[in-house]
Amino acid sequence: MPMMPAISSGARMHGLVMYLAGPGKANEHTTPHVVAASSREVFAAGGGGARMTREDAVALGRVLDEARVVFGTEVTRRDTAALKAAQERGLTGYDAIAEATRDENVWHCSLSLPPDAAALDEATWSAIAHDFMTGMGFDDPDAADARWVAIHHGATTNGGDHIHIAASRVRDDGTVVAKWRPHPTRGGNEGDYPRAQRVARDLEQTYGLEVLSSYTKNMAARGRAHAQDAATKPQRAPDGSVRDPRIAEVPSVTLARRVRAVAAAAESEAEFVRLARTDELVLRSARYDTTDPEAVTGFSVGLPAEEYANQYGRPIMHGGKKLGEDLSLPRLRERWIDDDQARADARAAWDHVDAAPPFGGASRPAPTRPTTDTNTPEAGGPDTDSTRGASAHSEHTAGAADLDAMQARLRSICVKLARSSATEADYARALRDHPDVLARPRFATGSTTGVVGYVVALHPSIVSDDDGKPIWRNASYLGDGLALSELRARAGWPTDDNHRHLASAAWTRTRRDTGERRTAASAADQAHAHTAHQHARRWERTVTSVTDPTSTGWHTAAGDTAAALSAAARGLNPRDAASVNQLADALGGVAGHRRSTHAAGTGARTAAQRVAATMLAASRDDTTLLWLATMKQVLAASKAISAAMDAQGHTRHAARIRTAIGATEHHFADQPYTPAPTRDVAQVRSAARPATERSIPSDRDTHDHGR
To answer: Positions of the region Disordered (predicted)?
Structure first.
């Protein structure tokens, strides 16, 4: 039964103790009582082991906070996010620093056991608390006493036995307990977060608890921020009522899935950036190379602020390596294309991400009049009466409200695609690949290569005129700076001759593909499903043929399988996606094997990564069929990975994977996949070939995980 520490800091000792002695956020606190303390005085103030009353809590808070009050010691930390927010509001100097300074004289840590672990007796918890606080440096024979108390009040909302430790960081002589202390063996300083993990692992061995397998098996385990975890639980309102959780899932878990899927689908670093932005992730590069300040050495990622933000309304960013050992940028680069052109494209993509967003200002209003530009969508020449008549007739038929909604949807799609595009060619390709949008360029008079604008429409299956034809809109009428001239000026796209040529070619292909790409949609879906099915079969054979259960390649296999599952879940409805995400998280939990980083571009592309790419390229309607076409093979690979984890001693992880496999099989039991006849698939294969299917040697699309 591994022990899990969770640390937080604050300024009000009285408030913390009152919470620990109270009913909790969801009435989960039962019989709160003190099991250990730094001294007899503190133990007695908390009720001496009896059930705590309100009076006990008040007395305990006063005793714990006494040294800080007597000496007037301040324990502060400068909040970098708050400082940046203050500076953005115009504050400078000491005013900005004062607003960003946080009082953190209270240190709080919970020690929890898993829900399936047996509860510990009071004496064991008391001994663990004393040893833990010694290991954390609060009980230091070479320093004055630091006051702390350990409170036991029943199981967590998940059913796990646990204690809470509340400590003052001001010692009895007025000095401050340092969070950073020398590491006992490897040298250098160690913060309280990693120290808590190290001390907890040592205590697991000392008290005969189950040692966290990731600690002994060289596999990184990722914790979750206390505040984010708390946001997924019922919230207690000021009036005492219980409200629904703020969020359904911890953001770091969601981000790990989405980043893993995007990274697997991408063949290059620049494509990773584009796909992440298309998936509405907030990206930021890290540039810490002292020899080349412009070199990107890592990245951070977050959900959009409207989904989850800090108190200043800014996205909460997570480093790639913090999400998973296998999601650090150096590890991801191992399997992406690495040459001079790819590196240049990657740097341009990151520069575009880090530049000021071109859509930060207020949107200019979008006219609701129909497209009446000098060039037609069809042939690049002047409008004809029939074209104008069809457009006007469709407005009359659809109604002004429907057309406003259509334009709003087009605007939203185009803005997101423009934000995620590092070059004009990327934007043209993104428009061409989007399942809901048709796009055509407008060429300069007398030119077949000089693109001066473009028009867009929703696919006729979404909205059309009386004849079933698309209702076109000039991008300049959509607002938000979507006119091509404005995008070129504001988005910072490269304008050299090479990029202009690439953009022209991409626009030309957009014009050609618009009329062809949906002519055989149903057959194309079957062809995509057939392709994904073949990739999944190859992946199943690769994984199940490995005979060495101790190979470290199983962790890579787990990450690639998790990526395919995560990509599939992105396009499933929430009910269907739940069990698929559960399995993706379970496999992702064993993907973070610690090892040295290999050279960029040396890893082969696996069939599971191709499954992920096909899933992400599909529309929402396609994904259910694609998932059913690959489910049997992906689950078979997952079972093999679970058996390997058992053999390597990761029994808890293996059980979690098996549970998720069972839930997925049960949920999709009545949805079998029936492959299309091979001859039908072959007839549409060339037309249905997805954008993610590039010319990669087919014999090198998998890793041999046993070698």
So the answer is: 222-244, 354-400, 508-542, 668-707
